[in-house]
Amino acid sequence: MADTPIIETRGLTKEFNGFTAVNAVDFRMREGHIHALIGPNGAGKTTFFNLLTKFLRPTRGVILFRGENVTEAGSAELARRGIVRSFQMSAVFPHMTVLENVRIGLQRRLGTSFHFWRSESSLGSLDRRVMELLEAVDLADFARVIAVELPYGRKRALELATTLAMDPKLMLLDEPTQGMGHEDVNRITALIRKVSANRSILMVEHNMSVVSTIADRISVLQRGQIIADGPYEEVSRNPQVVEAYMGSADAELGAAHA
Amino acid sequence: MNGTRIFYVLAALFALCVPLFGIYPIFMMKLLCFAMFACAFNLLLGFSGMLSFGHAAFFGSAAYATGWLMTAHGCGPIAGVAAGVGVSAALGLVVGALAIRRQGIYLAMVTLALAQVVYFVCLEAPFTGGENGLQDVPRGALAGLLPLKSDLVMYYAVLAAFVAVYLLIRRIVHSPFGQVLKAIRDNENRAVSLGYDIDRYKLLAFVLSAAIAGLAGSLKALVLGFVTLSDVTQANSGEVILMTLVGGSGTFFGPVIGAALVVTLQEYLSDLVGGWVTVIIGAVFVVCVLAFRRGIVGELAARTFRR
Ligand SMILES: Nc1ncnc2c1ncn2[C@@H]1O[C@H](COP(=O)(O)OP(=O)(O)O)[C@@H](O)[C@H]1O
Ligand SMILES: [Mg+2]
Fold first, then answer.
1. What strand order describes the sheet that includes A217-222?
2. What is the tally of structural domains in chain A?
3. What is the ipTM of this complex?
4. A239 C-alpha to ligand 2 centroid (Å)
5. Which of A69, A83, A134, B94 is the most buried (most CB within 10 A)?
6. What is residue A126's DSSP assignment?
7. What domain range includes position A112?
């Protein structure tokens, strides 16, 4: 077992005033995988992401990134080390152009981010890389558009491009296809698969056809606890999972099977 | 965009020729000092998204430092002003470090409380002249050569300082640092998730704003030749907010227009209506806020772009 998980949690717990949103989660994810985290609304998926990226402080438990204890690291530091997240609600910089949105993900590495006396044009050296990234998400034609004016699906694509600009080792995507039409879902799914080369992706996703097509492995969260974990075929037959998904999501699981 | 350029050329011509028009130079200098103060405040509110209720602390502490060094220690104007800016920047570092951990109105309350502390220090400290303030602050001579006693020379010195600050603020906003500030203002959490230690960026913005506010206060001390408690009062902090909002926060020229409006009203109305000037300025503020929420310049810009 030489394979160190890219991310591992031990007994990770988050309590909000006595309510346990994430309950003693032992989670392991393999380097290079696309790993899907599924579970009903309110199961604690977003909270789990917030803990991994330290937007929330764990009440208890340990987080290991490539075997190293990062439980005490801050959000920005974790991002610099390669754990970059997206948010459930679209997370662009609305009043910046599409180009600037991606550039902000690249510019920190120039080491001039505190240089208030330097002209903005000094960032021009990044434009080629920005355009490559925009090309990759099909947004090259929108480079000069103010982000707030993009349609929803494009905003999520832009968000992905900005995340990619960080060249993250581990990408955390919180419902990247939520609220999208069929076409956009397919485009984003293809995109995620494309960018998954040389990196690991942990994604919260409700759309089971997306999960079944791209996820190498699935974990199911229910009331803050992991109730199943494994490849899609195995997990989707797990009676406990099927029960957790009774109702609307149950139909979804079945449909994805067919 | 071309219209903007024409506007700047006209404004520069006007500013250069002010002495020819027979406009009272002291009045123009006072206006420029407050315009600079408002621009400093706007750097924080308009371009960094932080509201300070205590900016007079920076303006006033620098004015006191400059006034004291020049009256009691015979400092020259450059050393005096530089020391004033240093004091306000240092104070900005302290206030900023305590304030930026909070957000919105809570941040504003911290600045308010700390500015109140600065006010009491200025009232009680042995070197500030208490209720009387510092009188007869000499202007000295620039580099020991150019006497600033002449209002004409002083005017051009203040104008040069103002233009430099105005260009500096434009540069700050359009710099790599300015890009990060904009990102933080737009979506703080996302900026964190891209690896930015946002507190450090906010703190730098705070210090820059405090330093520029201090420069404005120091120059005001030289221009008028006195420093009083009114420079550090809550009223002064309130006025700079009003100037910025009336002119248009988040626009470059808005604070200048706002400052010009308020200073002009104060100057010409206080003789006519006395204490009512505060009420009139308050009414102007209310009308502006209701009629153009983006401020005068913000509203003009929005309308031009819509066309
Ligand atoms: N900041 C918070 N304070 C209190 N309760 C919270 C907070 N964040 C989330 N919760 C609660 O934790 C539970 C899990 O929420 P969440 O992680 O958003 O679920 P999911 O993303 O799986 O839909 C919910 O019951 C939610 O109400
Ligand atoms: Mg969620």
1. A83-85, A170-174, A200-204, A34-38, A217-222, A225-230
2. 2
3. 0.86
4. 24
5. A83
6. G
7. 95-165
A116 token code pair: 């208030």
Cβ of A76 within 8 Å of Cβ of B197? The answer is: yes
Ligand found nearest the CA of A44 = 1
A182 backbone dihedrals φ, ψ, rounded to 5°? -50, -50
Return d(Cα A120, Cα A116) in angstroms, integer: 9
In chain A, residues with a C-beta closer than 8 Å to the C-beta of B189 are 55, 87, 91
Listed residues A165, A196, A214: the one ending a domain: A165
Please report whether residue A90 resides in a domain.
Answer: no
Supply B284's token pair. 């102007």
Q: Tens digit of pLDDT for each residue in B97-150? A: 999 988 888 888 899 989 889 898 888 888 887 777 788 878 877 766 777 778
Whole-structure pTM value: 0.88
Tell me whether residue B116 is exposed, middle or buried, using C-beta atoms within 10 angstroms of its C-beta: 0 to 12, 13 to 18, 19 or more: middle
Torsion angle (degrees, nearest 10) of CA A86, A90, A95, A97 = 70
Instruction: Using the CB atoms, write b or e for B141-178: b if 16+ within 10 Å.
Output: eeeeeeebeebebbbbbbbebbeebbebbebbbbbbbb
User: How far, in Å, is the centroid of ligand 1 from the Cα of A44?
Assistant: 6
